[in-house]
User: Fold this.
Amino acid sequence: MAYSDKVLDHYENPRNVGALDKNDPHVGTGMVGAPACGDVMKLQIRVGDDGVIEDAKFKTYGCGSAIASSSLVTEWLKGKTLDQAMEIKNSAIAEELALPPVKIHCSVLAEDAIKAAIADLKQKSGGGVDIEPAKQEA
Amino acid sequence: MLDIHQNHFELFDLPTSFAIDRTLLDQSYRKLQGEVHPDRFAAATSAERLRSMQWATHANEAYQTLKSPVSRARYLLQLQGIDTQEETNTAMPADFLMQQMEWREAIDEARSALDISALEKLLLEINREATSQESELRAAIDEQRDYPRAAGIVRKLRFLDKVQDEIERAIEALEE
Assistant:
């Protein structure tokens, strides 16, 4: 399948690959996986005292579209508040990367990773903020 | 006579359960294929020939479904009205995903170190894990009838399948 130029760019030069200290109370870690293709994605965000995301890192094992989706969202996340981050939709990721229909689930995975990272962060800070987990855990 | 309302297990005269007698399945499949083989309908009307062909296809699909543990489980859950959500459910248990990450990292390392024996060791470890998940799956479906849990195990097995594939491909590439 032909990848779009933007997917190729993120795939060949992924932004923000790496890890943040998952024990840092300012760091939220989201891990998600797509059973159908076996892709695994870890997304981490670090939030400053002002509630703004100051850093984001990812590690993804999967196809080019999954890597590009996670790379792209780490760029988008920086500078956003958690509420703004919650509003990132998979459709926007898919549109930006021109993902074909069979790769839409890669963008879903990235959206779910953001939600999982934020849920982890809120749970850590015990902020009492009700936040819906990305998906029900089986 | 053949009945379209039979489920795949009934089609092969097997109990509708995850535990399956592979020898019986193979025997029943061969017997059924013999009965519906299009060659036997060479002199039949075109409607009968078409029907025999449809049955042969149906029997083949049913056989393929029951043969593999994952598709057999998926089918059993479907009979219970449970969707395994392999396309939509991304929330796997954290320790499971962590283990997945570690295995993928280990594969990458072994691949760049051209270390076939490390890859073979990993493959053994993952095969063991898959076997243990399959026996959990059997217990969840046949004994506990805990179908949501069974669906979760099906999703886990998809990841294990993927890792097995990846290691096998890495070993092949290094052996060439």
Summary: Chain B touches chain A at residues 84-94, 96-98, 100-101, 104, 148-149, 151-152, 154-156, 158-159, 161-163 (CB under 8 Å). Chain B has two domains: 8-67, 94-175.
